[in-house]
Amino acid sequence: MKKRVEKYLKEKADKVDCVTDEEPPKTADDYQCSGNLEQDFTKLCKLMAVKDIPSVKIKQSTSTNRGVMDNQFQTSLSQMTTWSSKPCLRIELEKEDHSCVKEVKISGWKMDEVVLQVLSRILPSLSNLQCLHMWRVGLTDYTFTSMRNTVSLCSNLRKVVLEGNPLAEQSYHLLIAEDSMLTDLSLRNNRIGEEGACLIGLALSTVHSANKNLLSLNLAFNSIGDAGAIHISQGLRLNRSLLCLSLSYNQIGDNGAAHLAEVLGPFALTHEEIVERRKLLLKGEESTMVQPSLVSLADSHERPLSVRSSSSLDRLNKSTKNPTKKKDNPKKEEKPAAGQATKKEEPKVAKKDNKFPRVQAGKIAGKDNNLPVSEQERVDVVETVIPLLDPGIVHTGGKVIHPGNTCLTSLNLSGNKLSEQSLRMFLSSLEGQGEGGLLRLSLNRNQFPSDCDTLLKIQEMMSLRDPLKKNLSGQVDDEHGEPKTTNEA
């Protein structure tokens, strides 16, 4: 019996060896990425016949690596005519695990299409990748489109730094499309002009769509100008996700600053926005007429302001089908005290949505599935509040006045061409915001005296809004657009 078993096992092992020997050599197409960037990058480069394979270096420490990157930025883009002779990928690991790469940095060497194809195979397989840093890598419009498609396939990638890569078509807006999951995007030193700014503004928001995930956008050291700033301001009108925006060193004057200041405070809706608002109000009224039992306990004039999502309606449908709940709850719903409580709560939720857009609301809705039905309904209201249905909208003087964008908390306009006229416009908008709105406004290195009364008033207002950070408008940016604390005004 033992001999038979040994014979069977030997024959089985021989068959496996034969199959292994007969397998053809792997090609780039059938290569399966393991999630280990160091191994996968080298093997794929060899399979795709890359002559000079870039090395892969592990990031040693945050301070050391940041110093290297800062030194690279000290030379302006126009003075850089040579590429690095020793191209390499710098990666940062999570807990020193080689299969958990959380950051990839490529800087100072021109990537050809083959290397980019290798990365397009590897990066989506890195389930822990959170940041992709590409500084001056010689992207073209074609390779940028390929890179953008790769970014969309990386499930946990939230930050992209794409700097020193000017594109002829200026199609950077593709990174912040409506379906983009990026929360942090830096596009410094890309020679973005009016055309690129227009596309970015449309990507931030239009009357019919808006980006709902981007929290920080850095457009410093470009050529946006007044015309481009106007396009960006149009994108800020109905965007309620962006918290930080840098437009430093972009040749922006008083005309562009006037439009940026306008959207921060109360502004009049355009004809197109009013028409869209009416459509949304009609949709809200139709939903209440079709299913009156599912309407909130708020007053009828407040109902269109927040249209419940389908998930909320489904939950309420289930609750109405349950006969026991019907018997227990009708009296409670008819009590005026309960109705009054609901009226007070809904506007508060709407205000929170204006100050803290989808970031906190999304986390609540995504994780707290065990909340009571009443709490879940309030979360749904936060998610579905639309800027054109803002509770603060009023009708006055034949115009429809919107309270303004109070979600943006940081605006950097350092190193532009703003005069004291711009300061007065920003002061007026800040006063119109009330308690919410901007917490940091950087206006240094412009064309107004550092001791002017308007600037001092703005500084005082900023310090009152955030007592922990004084002299916010007196912060100075370094040559790369990054703030550094100083006493300069």
From TrEMBL:
Pfam families linked to this entry: LRR_6
InterPro entries reported for this sequence: Leu-rich_rpt (IPR001611), LRR-containing_protein_71 (IPR053040), LRR_dom_sf (IPR032675)
Q: Which stretches are tagged as biased composition: Basic and acidic residues?
A: 325-356, 477-489
Q: What is this protein called?
A: Leucine-rich repeat-containing protein 71 isoform X2
Q: Where is this region: Disordered?
A: 294-367, 470-489
Coiled coil residues, start to end: none
Task: Report the leader peptide range.
Answer: none
Q: Where is the composition biased (Low complexity)?
A: 306-322
The record's section on PANTHER family has: LEUCINE-RICH REPEAT-CONTAINING PROTEIN 71 (PTHR46984)
State the organism of origin. Answer: Carassius auratus
